Amino acid sequence: MKGRILEILKEADDTVSGETIGSRLGISRVSVFKHIQKLREYGYDIPSAPAGYRLLYEPDILFPWGFPGRETRIHYFRELESTMDAARDLARNGCPGFTVVIAETQTRGRGRLKRIWHSGDGGLYFTMVIRPQIPLALCWQINFAASLALAKILSSEYGIEARLKWPNDVLFKGKKIAGMLSEVEAEADALTYINVGLGVNVNNDISPVEDTAVSIKAILGKTVSRQRLLSAYLDALEKRLDEGRLHETIPEWKRFSATLHRPVRIQTLQETVKGIAEDVDEDGALVLRFKDGSKRRILYGDCFHR
Ligand code: BTN
């Protein structure tokens, strides 16, 4: 209901009476007033005048009602240990596809290869529960589609020249804007769910020691609405997955790649290898070429551009 009240106020861009809002939504004026009171408590500036209510300011908080059409699938938390854990519980309990768990901050944010993901105020930390009808062997395509969708939104909506580092980092001028982690469960060969978690440096301050990361705020010189970014991103990714053109992901991903044709170092939990990143094949593997001309497909690891 709060989302619909906000929609009416935004649409009007002027004062709207409690009676008008109530009759459009089939609720009483008193009920409208109570919802508006709650919204004010959350930081929305909605002054009342004799003629009704007007929306002057919306805080950039990722409440479910900020995502019309998705409200029941958005789970918003002020703080979590990790959105990955909450999403796993929801997925195991049968939540619908494209359920999204969002946290303002995480106390144990996880990165790839057992690293910590610092999750301070102003960033975007979320995990999507995705239930594609594809065999387990193809689930990596979802990760590539998810990082590609973010790079495309940053480029088309924000004018940021975002590039992709294998496997799924989003970079700007070599510095990391976003990282991705995924977890999968399957029964036999059928994927039950793939949970894709993204940490995006939006309005958070990056500590000077992390000189390999950058925020959208620092790139653009102003804060941006995380709600607008996440909304555009979820719409774009869901559309992409619904269209079922997953096989087109890798060729498009390659066009955004910052990794191809450069010397790289790949680190896994077991070893480090160096070579030239020659290709990303149709299985999402990075094809490395070594000095002696031999090649090797790398399926998992962290990539460092040299
Ligand atoms: C990486 O680049 O190492 C992956 C970082 C992934 C961080 C996100 S933040 C939301 C979700 N919850 C976590 O604990 N991790 C992912």
Can you offer a commentary on this structure?
By secondary structure, this protein is of the alpha+beta class. It has three domains: 2-53, Winged helix-like DNA-binding domain superfamily/Winged helix DNA-binding domain (Arc Repressor Mutant, subunit A, Orthogonal Bundle); 64-255, BirA Bifunctional Protein, domain 2, CATH 3.30.930; 263-305, SH3 type barrels (Roll), CATH 2.30.30. It is 29% helix and 27% strand. The protein has eight helices and 14 strands. The chain has helices spanning 2-12, 18-25, 29-41, 83-92, 140-158, 216-220, 226-242, 249-255, and strands at 48-49, 52-53, 74-80, 99-106, 124-130, 162-165, 169-172, 175-187, 190-200, 263-267, 272-280, 286-289, 295-298, 302-305. It has a seven-stranded mixed β-sheet, sandwiched between helices. Strands 13-12-11-10-14 form a five-stranded antiparallel β-sheet, with no helix packed on it. It has a two-stranded antiparallel ribbon with strand order 1-2. A hairpin with a 2-residue loop joins strand 7 and strand 8. Helix 5 (140-158) packs across helix 8. The longest helix has 19 residues, at 140-158. It is elongated, with a radius of gyration of 22 Å. The model has no long low-confidence stretch (mean pLDDT 94). Bound molecules: biotin. Biotin binds at residues 82-84, 106, 109-112, 115, 117, 125-127, 169, 179-181, 197-199. Biotin is lined by residues 82-84, 106, 109-112, 115, 117, 125-127, 169, 179-181, 197-199.
